[in-house]
Amino acid sequence: SQTIHQWPATLVQPVGSPLSLECTVEGTSNPNLYWYRQAAGRGLQLLFYSVGIGQISSEVPQNLSASRPQDRQFILSSKKLLLSDSGFYLCAWSAQFNGRSFGPGTRLTVT
Amino acid sequence: GQQLNQSPQSMFIQEGEDVSMNCTSSSIFNTWLWYKQDPGEGPVLLIALYKAGELTSNGRLTAQFGITRKDSFLNISASIPSDVGIYFCAGLITGTASKLTFGTGTRLQVTL
Fold this sequence. Notes:
By secondary structure, chain A is mainly β.
């Protein structure tokens, strides 16, 4: 069966520091991968998606970036965090263009 | 980005009561999904609907794909405390990698 992992689970970072969140998927190949952000009490906002290695599409312009160095690895990064980057970051995968299966999430607090 | 209108925004109900929530859109979707999110965790898929008019059940949960393709409904029968959480609808246009649009969520709280 397929599983999706995210780490770290929780992160507290100062404003201006870099960020790297990692997501890996097991049990499938060539998945579509997604990064979502969820502000407190709000819905899910799609940040990036990828249909293959090295292929990244950005949905919302901001100071975040994403990379897919391997088929089942998706990384969310920032060179300098802003206070507004705080939130709950969710990685998800899908086979072809079906519904998403979500990871456990990373709670990021920028201080 | 676009979000679906989901109502109610929150509900306080007593254990044993039935729950109804709905999701509406100005756009047509060809797949509707319902997710539940527990605090501090990622959303978990509850029910997927693939055809207009389809009625699908998963235990005490029943969801329907509206005939107009612009809405969907979720019912929970005989609620229990573990039903607490946020329920999200999502509409999907298959064939496009990114076009899964989420609702604004319904927060459900169950009192004993």
